[in-house]
Queue: 2 jobs
Job 1
Amino acid sequence: MGVVCIFSYAVPEGKSGQQAVDMLQKNVELLGATRSGNFCVDCETYQSNSQNISQRLIHILHNSEHPASCFAALDTGTILVSDLLFDVLMSKLTAAKTGRESFYQQRKGFRIESRGQRYELWDFVIKIGSVSLASNFKGILVEVEYCPCVVASDCWNLIKEMAQSIVGNVADNPPMYIKNKTDPVYSPSDTVNQYLEHFNNFRKTAPQGQPSR
Amino acid sequence: MMDPQLAQALKAAPTNEYLLQGSILDSSLEVLLCRLKGLCDHADSPEEKFVDHEMVYAIKNASIPQPLQYSVRHSLVQPENWQLRYLGHSEMGDKSRHTLIRNCVDVATSDNVLQFLHEVGFRLDHEFVVKGFYFHKGRMKVTVSKIFKMMQQGHTTDNLESIVPSYLVELSVLATAGQDAIAEDMKNFAEQLKPLVQLEKIDHRRLQATGT
């Protein structure tokens, strides 16, 4: 694993989400990248349920790049990395029994995921994902990973060059999260945090009139 | 709406703990360790020691009288190891069942788990230090351990006080639900440890009743 930058790619006017994804995939394949399976990053959100616990959101994310892990991100910025079984612990917090409330409850219609094709190109892994919120298409996220390095500032120029040839000038500047990161060493939690930022932005946008793909 | 693959993985995860417990006096420790070394796997290597700091966290609110407890185990020997554990109520079952069964979910986590629990709304309930020895035979796990009270909060190396002059002996297996054949294996293994230690299914409710 290396350094990952995630870019939101705006669907060009007059094109459907699927057409835009097809175009990006074609671009990447023209660069010489080979398909290496599918990928999925999903996020489910829970909110605290009672007066006694302060208002809190827990986002539970899974990333197919780390299939045995579960990432639990709080709205305070803390992110816990744990075994997949953490989902069972989460279900204890959300279980309501007769006559009593649960501590946390799932936000209905808030499940969001980015799903699509994974590519490999020499030292790079490229992923083109269509984002859907409760099965409605919301946009496209392109992930570019440079594998041999874990220091973000050292490989931004390499990633930039690669990303620009796929998504154009969206990649002129590093993602805000990477810019503001204080710890120089990149970790899988940082990827999850970037996805979470994008997901939260997608959730804020009004539902698009476009039909899902 | 969970990913079907994930749901399947979780279903197949071993979350049922079959458990037998007993205790020995400090003076009998050497003999029992010797016997366990002979019976368990890796008889030729020295026994494995562990020192863990266990912190039990609870979350409660007005509408829920019974708090939900998660415990954090932090290895003091390998400080990068953090585990978060949920233990359900133990089921005694009837006489035909040889062991206790309880729901047990053990999750390895990153080192910020204490901060995470705090922010989620959990508060520290109590903490202690466990020192002991660890053996395994196939999928059976045996621990011989002593529990220490921490006289000063947060001090895990000094100011420890042992509570009783004895060691807790536990034999456990993690399995998926309904694998009751394991209980039979455990009973046979416990037989082989007699009369050094008597491993039984202990009714925790009765202990709690006498404790209060």
Job 2
Amino acid sequence: MILNVRHVTRYLFDEPVRGIVQSQKLWPASCASQRVLSWAVTSEGCMRGAGFTDSAGDRVELASWRGPVSEIEIEVTGQVETIDLFGVLRDHREKVPPSAYLRATRSVAPDKGLRALSDEALGGMDSASDLDRAHALCRAVSAAIAYRPGETEAHTTAAEALAGGAGVCQDHAHALIAVAHVAGIPARYVTGYLQSDGAGASHEASHAWAELHVPTLGWVGFDPANACCPDERYIRLGSGGDAQEAAPIRGMVQGAVPVEQLVVEVVVTAGQQQQQ
Amino acid sequence: MSPKEPPIFNEMLNGAEIRPGYQSLEKWYRSMPAELRSLKQSEAEALFRRVGITFAVYGEGGDPERLIPFDMFPRVLTNAEWRKMDRGIRQRAAALNAFLADVYDRREIIRAGRIPEHLVTNNEAYEKAVVGFRPPRGVFSHIVGIDLVRTGPDQFYVLEDNCRTPSGVSYMLQNREIMMRMFPQLFLENRIAPVDGYAGLLKKTLASVAPAKCDHEPNIVILTPGQFNSAYYEHSFLADLMGVELVEGQDLFVEGDYVWMKTTEGPKKVDVIYRRIDDAFIDPLCFRPESMLGVPGLMNVYRSGGVTICSAPGAGVADDKAVYTYVPEMVRFYLGEEPVLENVPTWQCAKADDRKYVLEHLEDLVVKEVHGSGGYGMLVGPKSDKSTIEAFAARIRHNPDNYIAQPTLALSACPTFVEEGIAPRHVDLRPYCLVGETIELVPGGLTRVALKEGSLVVNSSQGGGVKDTWVLAE
């Protein structure tokens, strides 16, 4: 499947700021399930540099703006060819050992509720395969947290989302990572794009899911928000221990921090390969 | 003293006989009138106050204005004693660095089954962000502080390793400076190896790990958390001695491929950062987002080879108390040598057999938290009452992974000035080993002394002081 992406992030400040620095993780890596045909990240007035491929195999670049600046825009456009590998991440070059993804950050720290959810989901599955156990955890998280925007915010933890019983893809992914950790399964947060309907409607956020490490297969994606594994409608962008570590953009404003308005627009459409 | 405690090794006296190296000091002490002694003691204190060296060593917190007691009676190591320690310290610093380069790359030592994987990769100090990255010359820990204790004429043990940013070296330098100023005669009578080359060697070491693409004399800075940090004095002292800038996070910024320092003549590129800030705070875009101490984007420049950070982020995984047990194994694995310096035998409460032994022998053991420091959160069995021991046993059972235990060592004692004259007091030693293009070590280190009679805790926060440490030249 050919997917076209347009992802625009705009920051508006009510007062000009002295400067901005961002670490951007906005470049999908090619692997068995996706081939990047074209990709561009553009912003006006910024200085780019310090590019490298991080330990998890994701391209990272630094962008900085010297102030005074009151508005910036980061535009990502590209085309990716995908196939359905049932969520299995193959031929992705990375250096971090899976066992380093067993440590909980604040967002995915397990509490009583998450421990119970994990134990319940895996009850009677002692002899089941690792893959089946991972599926069971994903189903349990889908069932325990309803998809309802507006109930949670960026800093909501997995424990809080589970207690509230509702959230968005970030909360689902965090909860799945937490229950996987409880079961001793390495797990991490993945950001990316999802072509969720045929009409090419605009969304207010990019997508997120989790990857669990299954010894026989390697990393396998699970999307508890949609109760499925990533297929040809998904583009994988980057990963990290939680939403903060995996964030496509981590930035900091220099000087006094003014009121900031963030506008994100994501359009993913299925389409024809562009003529080269 | 309970009967099972072994005799304490006195570094000056062997019965009535004076050990080599201490003869002239013994005479010096005997010929010093009491009035002169107290005069000199207040002179020393005044000198310390004047230079402003009043901070707590080793990040122990406490009152930053408090003066750490300086004991004028020097500690002496003969050349033969030091030669062995020197060999052992260099060996250990090399092995620790080889371990760090390995666990962030091919992880051979784990594959070979010589250390359990979870102790390393699941360790709080193991930094995912630097896996696969080789810092210049493959060095992660550029300043290794190795804490040593002694129990006999030839028995030296490593108590712990400090691979991040060990502090206290300014005391080593100032103790010598002040002794030379107050008692110049002693330095004519004895041939004492100098320590004042330390700053030059530190600068040379830092310059030798400049990024490969730095084609000029590297611009080195010391990054401090600021004047409220308890070791701020040391940061500014070392910057002065090396002739480099002392900066805070807000004095630096990243742009393009580099880190820049704000100066009155415009931005100046920075090549090497000797940071005295913990990993978690050096870059809010990579680690703790709320940190105001670091430089946003610093890790991006580091990972792309634009700047060197000393010690390297992630170096702490080598000095964890649970990993410590495996350092002798690292020496054998990476260097193919037998360790010159021994570890203190250590039981890991995470292991069922070890835990059982520890819980049954708490009254004879010292129990420490794996991540603790500064002498807090530890149990000194022989000096604790029954209820304290029982309460501690419950903590171990609740979270065994968090504790290790060691036998109570009969730490050696050195003559120390007390009210009535001199008396033996327990000491330890922290030498500072520099690792860059070469491995460098100035003779000696910082001797800490437990000033309270019978106390084994040398931490300054718990009544410890410092001494000048002499290594006699051949």
